[in-house]
Every structure is written in structure tokens, then in C-alpha cells.
TrEMBL record:
Keywords: Acyltransferase, Transferase. One of its GO terms (molecular function) is acyltransferase activity. The lineage of its organism: Bacteria, Pseudomonadati, Spirochaetota, Spirochaetia, Spirochaetales. It comes from Candidatus Thalassospirochaeta sargassi. Residues 40-148 form the Phospholipid/glycerol acyltransferase domain. InterPro entries: Plipid/glycerol_acylTrfase. This is Lysophospholipid acyltransferase family protein.
Length: 382
């Protein structure tokens, strides 16, 4: 596609969709250095589904974003192509995407990369995909840093409804000269230190009151453990209340994701998520061959050409060494945990993973898919 056409579409989108986001999300900007001339790499922390448009509104040049296009609609896919976005396989290394990145830089373009590779579940900057910083060093291009504060609180990944508070974008530049003086490891550490924070705990956000409606709606996508009775998958949201369907305990959630009353769950949602992570570790270490966790009434299918080919309804059960999927007529699929790879949650709609040469998709229909990622990550690490 001709560059002039992408530049035109980029200008239109940044002044329509981007402008609307600036107003609705109350975005403020601080820029410590001038934006470099292309080619350069734009890097930001990834907390909001609309991060590319939020940041892009304030960029002087068209940015070709490396993005997950697999899980989007056909309309969104076409829109992404119009503005020069290019696909990367989420949750896995992607040689084709890397090659496209290099070609774009060699042709004098600006590239946008979110080095975490995925949006944050708890407002924390997660570990970077290895090698993202070394591209800038190898091809001698500057890095434009865009640190976003308040983006996660504006619309948490798990939430059904947005909030309004403030999003602050802090722009900085790492020059080619500075990059030349650092090793790739040192550069990656520098970028990480410039982007790393937690939106829930950040003092800058404590000064801002985030408001909205139905603040707890969707909470079951991230919280699966009740600190009061220990039940799994009993947590749901109703309005601004978090409720356990087993013991009846409830908590109030505000727009800054603080909870009351405080107790074992902590003072905010980050505390609760950390507490349930500790409980997950205890479950994994003491279970033996017992069930670690399960999710009933889900749909699993092999995926070919982005389509579900053999959908079956059943129950998904996790053990220390395997996942079992039981379905109608006593059917059973067994997956060795070690061979389950490239697992992701796609836009709160589907959990996908590779097994051997096949790709599988699980539709949780509003249930908690994130816990499967957390459990598998921990089991593979021990």
C-alpha cells in the first residue's frame, strides 16, 4: 500500500478516533525531548486496548504498529492494514513480523512496539519479550518512549465498562548516541526502568479520582479466589460490588480499584491479585495428583484458518502434569502441560494455545480464562 495513502489514513484516524479518545479519557501529555525524525522505534507500556490511538494522536509521524491482528474482526483487520499496522502472532516469536519490522526501518519508517507483547491484567508492566531493544541498537535508530499512567484504570483489561479519570503520557527519547554506549541488555533494562510501574499503586493516580458505573462488572475474569471462604470461581461483580456466591461475602470497589472493607484481600485489587497468586502457588505445590483448578461448561475446538472446526462443549480440568477436556458421550482430550505452548487470552473472548502442530481455542463465555495462563506459567516455572 502506498505510503501517502497510509499517511492520509493515519492523519484522519488520529484526528477523529484519536481526538475522541483524548477527550473521553482526559489525556494529558508531557514531552521531555523532541520527537526524532524517522526511522525510529516507539515503545510504550501496554495497558489499554486503544493505546496505539491514544499515543498516536500526539505523534508527528505515521507509526507502523506491530499488533495482534489474529483476534480482531475483519473490519478492524482492514482498518489496521489501512494505517500500516502489521500482524504479530500473540504469545509467540514471529520471524515474519521481525522481518517486516526490519524492512520498515530500512525504508525510513517509524515503528511502534509494545515490548510486553500483551496488555496488563493487573496494571503492572510485565516482563518484556526478549530482543525488542536490540533491534534499535543493531539498526542504529533512536527510541521514543511513551509511558502511560492511568490507562489501565481508565479501562481495566477485565472490565465491562470504562472509567474517567486521567491518562498521562510521558514522552522521552533515547538517542542513537546513548544507545551506542549501552549493551543490548543495558538498553533493555533502561527501557524497562522508564516504563515500569503499576497503575493501581502509582502515587500519580492516587491524586486523581476515577469514576464510572458498574465498576465491578467483569471482575470474574481476573479474580477467581475468595479470600474469605477459599472457593474458586465464586466471585462475580454486581454494580460496584464484588460478591462471593458461596459464602456471601461482598466488597465495595471504587474507580481507583480500592476495595472495602480491607482484610485478607488487601486494600486494593492489586493486593487481591497478589494474594490469589500466593494461593495458586500453595495449591500447585500441595495438590499431588489432585485437581488444581477447573472450568465447566466451556467450548473447545481446533482452529484452522482462524475458524473453529470441531467445537465441543465440556469441562476443562487442570492437573500438575496435564489438562483434561471431557465432553459429551464420554469423550476425552488430554494435553501434556509441557507441550502446551503460546497460550494467550484474546480480547477476553477466547483462550488459545498450540499443542503439537495444532492450534486450539477455548471459549469461556465470560468465565475466568486468565487463571489458566497464570497456573500454566507457574507450573512451567517450577
Amino acid at each position: 500500500m502506498a505510503k501517502w495513502y497510509q499517511d492520509t489514513m493515519w492523519w484522519i484516524l488520529k484526528n477523529t478516533k484519536g481526538k475522541k479518545l483524548v477527550e473521553s479519557c482526559n489525556i494529558e501529555v508531557v514531552s521531555h525531548q523532541e520527537e526524532p525524525e524517522p526511522p525510529f522505534i516507539l515503545m510504550g507500556n501496554h495497558a489499554h486496548a486503544q493505546d496505539p490511538y491514544m499515543i498516536g494522536h500526539f505523534m508527528n509521524h505515521t507509526v507502523n504498529y506491530m499488533a495482534n491482528i489474529d483476534g480482531v474482526s475483519d473490519i478492524q483487520r482492514r482498518l489496521s492494514n489501512l494505517v500500516g499496522a502489521y500482524g504479530k502472532k500473540k504469545g509467540a516469536s514471529d520471524f515474519a513480523a521481525l522481518k517486516q519490522t526490519i524492512n520498515l526501518l530500512k525504508n525510513g519508517n517509524a515503528i511502534g512496539i509494545f515490548p510486553e507483547g500483551d496488555r496488563s491484567w493487573d496494571g503492572s508492566t510485565v516482563d518484556f519479550i526478549p530482543g525488542t531493544a536490540s533491534i534499535a541498537k543493531r539498526y542504529k535508530v533512536p527510541i521514543r518512549i511513551a509511558k502511560m499512567t492511568g490507562a489501565y484504570l481508565t479501562e481495566p483489561r477485565w472490565a465491562d465498562y470504562p472509567r474517567r479519570g486521567r491518562v498521562l503520557i510521558d514522552f522521552r527519547t533515547i538517542t542513537v548516541e546513548e544507545i551506542a554506549l549501552m549493551s543490548a541488555t543495558e538498553l533493555e533494562k533502561k527501557i524497562c526502568s522508564m516504563l515500569k510501574h503499576n497503575d493501581i499503586k502509582d502515587p500519580l493516580n492516587n491524586e486523581i479520582v476515577f469514576t464510572g458505573e458498574n465498576l465491578a462488572s467483569g471482575i470474574q475474569r481476573i479474580i477467581w479466589f475468595c479470600p474469605e471462604c477459599g472457593a474458586q470461581d465464586s466471585i462475580n461483580g454486581s454494580g460496584d460490588k464484588i460478591i462471593c456466591s458461596v459464602c456471601g461475602k461482598n466488597w465495595q470497589l471504587d474507580g481507583n480499584l480500592r476495595i472495602s472493607p480491607t482484610g485478607r484481600a488487601g486494600a486494593d485489587l492489586k493486593d487481591w491479585i497478589d494474594m490469589q497468586a500466593d494461593e495458586m502457588k500453595k495449591i500447585c505445590e500441595s495438590a499431588g495428583d489432585a485437581v488444581l483448578t477447573r472450568t465447566d461448561d466451556i467450548t473447545l475446538s481446533e482452529v484452522i484458518d482462524r475458524k473453529m472446526t470441531t467445537p465441543r462443549n465440556g469441562n476443562l480440568v487442570l492437573y500438575r502434569d496435564r489438562i483434561e477436556f471431557s465432553y459429551e458421550n464420554s469423550g476425552m482430550l488430554v494435553f501434556d502441560n509441557i507441550q502446551v505452548e503460546h497460550y494467550i487470552d484474546n480480547f477476553n473472548k477466547a483462550f488459545e494455545f498450540d499443542y503439537g502442530k495444532k492450534r486450539y481455542r477455548v471459549i469461556f463465555d465470560g468465565k475466568n480464562a486468565s487463571k489458566w495462563i497464570f497456573f500454566l506459567n507457574y507450573l512451567k516455572a517450577i
